[in-house]
Amino acid sequence: MLTYYIITFGCQMNKADSERLSFYLEKNNFILAENQFRADVLIVTTCGIRQSAENRVYSLVHQVKKKNPKTIVVITGCLSERKDVRSRIKNKVDIWLPIKELTSLVPKIKNKISNPLIAKDYLSVAPKYESAFSAYVPIGNGCNNFCSYCVVPYARGREKYRPASEIIKEVRGLIKNGYKEVILIAQNVNSYHSGSIDFTRLLARVNDLPGDFWIRFVSSHPKDISPKLIEALGRCSKVCEHVHFALQSGDDEILRNMNRQYTAAHFQNLVKKIRSVGRKYKPGLPMAITTDVIVGFPGETRKQFLNTVKVFKATKFDMAYISQYSPRYGTASYQMKDDVSKVEKKRRENVLTKILSQTARVNNKYYLKKIVPVLIEGRNRQGEWYGKTRTYKLVRITGTPVNNLAGSFGLVKINKVRDLSLEGNIIAQYE
Ligand code: SF4
Questions:
Q1: CA angle 374-169-201, nearest 5°?
Q2: pLDDT tens digits, residue range 201-218?
Q3: Are 278 and 287 in contact (CB under 8 A)?
Q4: Is the pLDDT of residue 111 over 60?
Q5: Nearest CA to ligand 1 atom 4
Q6: Domains detected in the chain
């Protein structure tokens, strides 16, 4: 029997892909190894969004091959189809596996394995869920948008969506097994379609399944968030009061150069509508808005950056993932001059981080003295329980409850707020 180990970089979609790889390998008699150095097969699910994640892959592959040259190294994810990456580490990688070819992995590794699993589409392969109470459910893969800085359309190919019946079946199974949180995931969930079912209808169908569970979804593209979807966010009681969608820049010219296909005003209008639908249907919790933003895109002047600052101040995000632009090989912006210095990118990142801290803290003050439901995830290094609210706020639970809380809902009274987290004590626990 062969052993395997998977290391995952990057987004939740990669995490969901790794879960499917695990199941596929175990179905084919592979056993999980203790760590990357003890595995016969090491699979690296890679991310090409940031240079730092890419560098970590080079160093990992180097270390593993140095320690154990017989390890079969498999590279999947964003970097698997990049010519420059292939040539840089070709001597250390045994198999390059675009993720849509997942089901060809076993024959590629070892043709003597009996009973290989055959499936047409890799998303039809069941995953081995990492968590026992929260699961990513991919509803599709790939992207048609070609934002000028992004490798995803090249790495994952064009959009392809799973049949709604298959998604519903997977979610039904999760609920039956006691899962409390289902996260529908695709590069662009709003573009989902399967026959006559669009994302709004899919969301409503999942919401109608019986059981006490929460629904989240990532990622949403601002150009595709329809009024119908916003209304559904309010009406579907199980859908959490949290929307994550990427602003990327608050300047219209930069947005055009990024090929994002919306304006800053459109983005802000969506935020307004989402918050207002939240107030109408779910007055218990304010709708949380989180985002991604890139600073130092080619040609971004100080004045253009100040437009992002303006949107940041006006929107009052609950969380933002701020990244410094780095050119990704093969993308349209790779041809543009990366002309904002490293120091200036860092300065811009710091400016936005500071605004985020302020707005998030002000938003968090709403929770003070309130009792809110929390899905408890586990213990931190200090041994304290922690979890998330429906609005995706991290909550530290102080005091030492004796029960095992992981995977259950708790009602937590919030008695302290920080910039990016809350703190409170548990009043009640329920399944
Ligand atoms: S929408 Fe843009 S940023 Fe998102 S995956 Fe597609 S190309 Fe990349």
A1: 75
A2: 999 999 999 999 999 999
A3: yes
A4: no
A5: 187
A6: 3-109 (3.40.50.2300), 131-240 (3.30.750.210), 241-366 (3.30.750.200), 371-430 (2.40.50.140)
